[in-house]
């Protein structure tokens, strides 16, 4: 089945810094989403982005489907950005099973 | 308010004692699924359902059962829980299967299960 790898696994930054999180996937996808899990465990959808670029405030995401990767950018980090960021994909061959990466744990220091 | 609810939120039980974790959504979603989250492993799909009476195995279905008798409910059943099923469980739903359209997954708040 499709493999999803996220990097880095952990990231510690000072408040105000910028960061880039990466998601590589091993097969063609027709769905890619980024999620944020806050320190209380709540999972929130950030972007649906199987290709192209989207922006939402300080966050933006780019997926290059032909090269099988996606990037999540966080600018001017705030402590509320702390948590775990997950990439999740659905293979072109299976439109009903969602595969998550293992996540990037982000800790923003005040 | 559109939401996915799970109950209970926390559960401590003993090996072999059957339990059910309920999941309900009020958005008339067709697609529902269960995940477990374990440290270092991310979220792994246990079972999913494309619609009423249609369920299928995810990546880690062993030791679990599900049913989808009504569109809004998708309970997760552990017939004989074991300590390796200690985990954080999430239920999620979307209007249709996520791969068929621009579908956002809505997650429940999670159920933390400890099996002694």
Describe the structure.
The complex is a heterodimer of chains A (110) and B (116). By secondary structure, chain A is mostly beta strands. Chain A is 0% helix and 59% strand. In chain A, strands 2, 4, 5, 9, 10 and 11 form a six-stranded mixed beta sheet that branches. In chain A, β4 (29-37) and β5 form a beta hairpin. Chain A starts with a strand and ends with a strand. Chain B is mainly β and 116 residues long. In chain B, the strands form two sheets. In chain B, strands 2, 4, 5, 6, 9, 10 and 11 form a seven-stranded mixed beta sheet that branches. In chain B, strands 1-3-8-7 form a four-stranded antiparallel beta sheet, with no helix packed on it. Chain B starts with a strand and ends with a strand. In chain B, 41% of the residues are buried. The model of chain B has no long low-confidence stretch (mean pLDDT 93). Chain A binds chain B through residues 1, 30-31, 33, 35, 41-45, 48, 86, 88, 90-91, 94-103, and chain B through 31, 33, 35, 40-45, 48, 50, 56, 58-59, 88, 90, 92, 97-100, 102-107, 109-110.
Short description:
The complex is a heterodimer of chains A (110) and B (116). Chain A has 110 residues and is an all-beta fold. Chain A has no helices and eleven strands.
Envelope shape of chain B: globular
Largest sheet of chain B: 7 strands, mixed
Query: Could you describe the largest sheet of chain A, including whether it forms a barrel?
Result: 6 strands, mixed
Please report the total strand number of chain A as a whole number.
11
Measured as a percent range, the helix fraction of chain B is under 10%
Compressed to H and E, one letter per element, the order of chain B equals EEEEEEEEEEE
- The assembly state of the depicted protein chains is heterodimer
Query: Which overall shape of chain A is indicated by the principal axes computed on the Cα atoms?
Result: globular
Low-confidence stretches of chain B: none
Q: What pattern of helices and strands is seen along the backbone of chain A?
A: EEEEEEEEEEE
Query: What is the percentage of strand-forming residues of chain B?
Result: over 45%
Mean pLDDT of chain A: 93
Proportion of beta-strand residues of chain A: over 45%
**N-to-C span of chain A:** 40 Å
Rounded radius of gyration of chain A (Å): 13 Å
Main structural class of chain A? mainly beta
The number of distinct helices of chain B, counting runs of at least 4 residues, comes to 0
| Radius of gyration of chain B, taken over Cα atoms and rounded to an integer in Å | 13 Å
What share of the residues of chain A lie within helices?
Answer: under 10%
Distance between the termini of chain B: 36 Å
Q: Can you count the helices of chain A? A: 0
């Amino acid at each position: 089945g499709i493999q999803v790898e996220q990097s880095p696994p952990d990231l510690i930054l000072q408040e105000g810094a910028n960061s880039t999180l990466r998601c590589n996937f091993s097969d063609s996808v027709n769905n890619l989403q980024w999620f944020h899990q806050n320190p209380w465990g709540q999972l929130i959808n950030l972007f649906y982005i199987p290709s192209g670029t989207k922006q939402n405030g300080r966050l933006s995401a780019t997926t290059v489907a032909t090269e099988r990767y996606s990037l999540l950018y966080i600018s001017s980090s705030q402590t509320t950005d702390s948590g775990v960021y997950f990439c999740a994909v659905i293979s072109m061959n299976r439109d009903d099973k969602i595969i998550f990466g293992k996540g990037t744990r982000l800790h923003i220091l005040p | 308010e559109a939401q996915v609810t799970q109950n209970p939120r926390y559960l401590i039980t003993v090996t072999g004692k059957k339990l059910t974790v309920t999941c309900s959504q009020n958005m008339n979603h067709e697609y529902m699924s269960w995940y477990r989250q374990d440290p270092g492993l991310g979220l792994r799909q246990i079972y999913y359902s494309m619609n009423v009476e249609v369920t299928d195995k995810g990546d880690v279905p062993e030791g679990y059962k599900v049913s989808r008798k009504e569109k809004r409910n998708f309970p997760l059943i552990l017939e004989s829980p074991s300590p390796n099923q200690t985990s954080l469980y999430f239920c999620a739903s979307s209007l249709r299967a996520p791969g068929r359209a621009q579908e956002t997954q809505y997650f429940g708040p999670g159920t933390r299960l400890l099996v002694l």
